[in-house]
Design a protein that fits this description.
Immunoglobulin-like, mainly beta, three-stranded antiparallel beta sheet, about 10% helix
């Protein structure tokens, strides 16, 4: 065959997808962790957040919450949810950050 083919492999595991993701992760706090039924999201820099989506460890959707135009601290209920670990994905206009939370 004619020509030459080359391939380059880059390891991107653990890398941020965008500058916005790093910024969002550094100013968003989820507390208390562990929690007993509700938790709070603190938005220290007043970044425009859009929604919070909670998944269980198998990736099943647990709940969605619209948090646009809210105060610096937002309360998120975890009612009727079994004890365990959950992933809290917090969306802004430009990025998504996911934090782990434990429900006791």
């Amino acid at each position: 065959p004619c020509g030459t083919t080359s391939m380059t492999d880059y390891d991107t595991s653990g890398c941020a997808l965008s500058v916005g993701e790093n910024e969002l992760s550094s100013v968003i706090t989820v507390f208390p962790n562990p929690t007993n039924g509700e938790f709070y999201i603190s938005n220290a820099s007043f970044i425009n957040l859009e929604k919070v989506v909670i998944y269980d460890i198998s990736g099943r959707l647990i709940s969605k919450h619209d948090i646009s135009n809210t105060s610096r601290i937002k309360t998120i209920p975890l009612n009727n949810v079994s004890k365990g670990m959950y992933f809290v994905s917090i969306y802004s206009e430009n990025a998504v950050v996911t934090k782990k939370i434990i429900l006791e």
